[in-house]
Specification:
alpha/beta, TIM Barrel, 6-stranded mixed sheet, 9% strand
């Protein structure tokens, strides 16, 4: 019998296999470990009542907002399932994502039986389900969003919790910057001698607060979601706190400041979280921070598609800036592909092309499943371009590169 030669994998097959198998460090999420109780959201009803789908259902099946939000979560989920999945095909990215989750968990999406899906989740223990999701999505670690000013989260950290090492912390400081009137009395109640006027002693107390929480939760970075336009410097409380508190602590602790820019809050207040929108913001504020504080590290993502090219160019000029993710309304395959191509063409492998921004544990499955496919397409094209010049790429080099894109480059940035 003739000896059959083993088929050599094509470049596309090699890239797709490596991308599909590489473990991810998801550098920005809103999920929590089991210490945080009800803050950890998971299961089919949480998926269906995610604010993306709430906004979508009101486009096709409107009712008074307060009437919808008075319904139980299960009833809300029923309403969304009927109107977005049964009465019309679920072609949006948010809808397709739920079907991807169910499919990759081994459930029959073709049955369309919501109660069958509920029964699957009902029998799961949360600890086992976390393990299942991490295994299915191939996640090695996630970075949470940890806000001391959240009344549900604050007491958890006071209990000296035993940390799940897969869940790393990030210190969220939005309230210091955008809601100082609320943050000030809270700091006072916690024993920090601050005043509304932001004098020198108050600024030193804010620094002490940041140092205390840095020691307590050991964050990977400090972060703020900032509106549009975000302007720095100006005469606002935010600018004073950034320059006199956040950046000095960041330098001392070698902690990046994560700038997440471009949210328009409460454009439609009746929709709650679903009522936020997007806007462009001047890139000059990011440039000024990177230029004026070269000993600080910054990581940045911007919500407007129109800001992406300028942000790439800024990152070319400032090695203390690391850009990441296709945030929120940018988390659609067509835009992810465009942004990933642009970033690789301008910045090579020194970026983190995606983060999940997951608010429901299960979303790790679909967001990374979809993103891996898109990132694979871009990488196949880029490596094909290299091979067309005569430059070949080995499997070990492919693994090295994909590991960098899936969290490795970010970890190297942290170590500098």
């Amino acid at each position: 019998m003739p000896i059959l030669k083993k088929k050599t994998a094509t470049l596309a097959e090699r890239v797709e296999t490596i991308v599909s198998q590489t473990q991810v460090l998801d550098i920005h999420t809103h999920i929590y470990d089991t210490n945080f109780g009800g803050l950890l959201l998971w299961g089919i009803d949480e998926l269906l009542t995610y604010h993306y789908l709430i906004a979508e259902v009101f486009r096709v099946a409107p009712m008074p907002y307060d009437e919808f939000f008075k319904m139980t979560k299960a009833k809300q989920a029923d309403y969304i399932w009927k109107n977005l999945f049964i009465d019309r095909s679920p072609v949006s990215e948010a809808c397709r994502g739920i079907l991807t989750c169910l499919n990759e968990l081994g459930l029959d999406t073709g049955s369309r039986k919501l109660n069958t899906y509920r029964a699957f989740f009902k029998k799961m223990k949360v600890e086992d389900y976390i393990n299942l999701v991490f295994k299915t999505a191939k996640i090695r670690s996630v970075i949470m969003t940890n806000n001391p000013f959240d009344d549900d989260e604050f007491p958890v950290w006071q209990n000296k919790i035993k940390r799940d090492r897969r869940f790393r912390a990030a210190l969220r400081i939005d309230d210091l910057l955008v809601n100082w009137e609320m943050a000030c009395p809270k700091l006072q109640s916690w024993g920090y001698d601050v005043e509304a006027g932001l004098g020198e002693f108050t600024l030193s107390e804010i620094r002490r607060f940041l140092e205390d929480w840095t020691k307590l939760i050991r964050p990977a970075y400090m972060a703020a979601s900032l509106g549009t336009p975000f302007v720095y410097p100006d005469d606002s409380a935010a600018s004073r706190i950034i320059e006199n508190c956040i950046l000095p602590v960041g330098r001392e602790k070698n902690l990046p400041f994560a700038l997440m820019i471009g949210v328009k809050r409460n454009m439609n207040p009746g929709l709650g979280l679903a009522g936020d929108s997007v806007g462009k913001s001047p890139i000059e504020s990011v440039e000024r921070l990177c230029a004026d504080f070269p000993d600080n590290k910054f990581i940045a993502t911007m919500l407007s598609r129109e800001n992406q090219h300028e942000l790439c160019i800024t990152a070319r000029k400032f090695p203390n800036l690391h850009i990441f993710g296709c945030w929120w309304f940018l988390n659609n395959p067509s835009i992810i592909e465009e942004m990933t191509r642009e970033r690789l063409e301008l910045l090579g492998l020194s970026v983190t092309p995606q983060h999940s921004d997951a608010r429901v544990l299960d979303q790790l499955i679909y967001k990374w499943s979809h993103s891996r496919k898109t990132i694979s397409r871009v990488l196949v094209d880029k490596y094909t371009d290299l091979e067309n010049t005569g430059w070949t790429v080995s499997d070990s080099e492919l693994k090295r590169d994909v590991k960098a894109l899936f969290g490795g480059a970010f970890e190297e940035f942290l170590k500098r």
